[in-house]
Task: inverse folding
């Protein structure tokens, strides 16, 4: 089971929720029902449901660190990759933030524009030094 592929599937679920207002459980079921996918269904479920559950707090962080960029004006893929990466950085301490950032960059390079990698890296790199402080504030 590939965590990278699991992140791709979680992104697809988050995209459905964000763009077409899909129900969280329906979006998760839809992405997990794809044939031939070797994913960790628990990880996919956690990334999607955790990101959605903490979206208000995550969006506040993104707004704080994405100076000059309104969340609603960001590319849909970029916004959802950022949300998922911030969730993973804060709530999956076992995964180093540098790994989460590299995975996020790879995701946007594959699903968004060539410039998206730099954009996502810039925002997540600003958040990374604050991760321990933020974790303490949210009780992680």
Result:
């Amino acid at each position: 089971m590939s965590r990278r592929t699991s992140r791709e599937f979680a992104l697809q679920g988050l995209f459905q929720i964000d763009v077409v207002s899909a129900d969280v459980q329906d979006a998760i079921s839809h992405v997990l029902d794809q044939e031939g996918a070797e994913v960790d269904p628990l990880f996919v479920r956690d990334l999607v449901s955790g990101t959605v559950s903490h979206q208000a707090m995550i969006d506040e962080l993104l707004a704080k660190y994405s100076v000059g960029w309104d969340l609603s004006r960001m590319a849909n893929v970029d916004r959802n990759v950022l949300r998922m990466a911030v969730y993973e950085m804060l709530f999956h301490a076992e995964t180093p933030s540098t790994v989460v950032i590299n995975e996020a960059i790879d995701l946007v390079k594959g699903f968004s524009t060539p410039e998206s990698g730099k954009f996502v890296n810039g925002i997540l790199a600003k958040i990374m030094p604050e991760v321990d402080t933020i974790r303490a504030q949210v009780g992680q």
DSSP finds eight helices and no strands in the chain. Residues 3-138 form a domain with the N-utilizing Substance Protein B Homolog; Chain A fold (CATH 1.10.940.10).
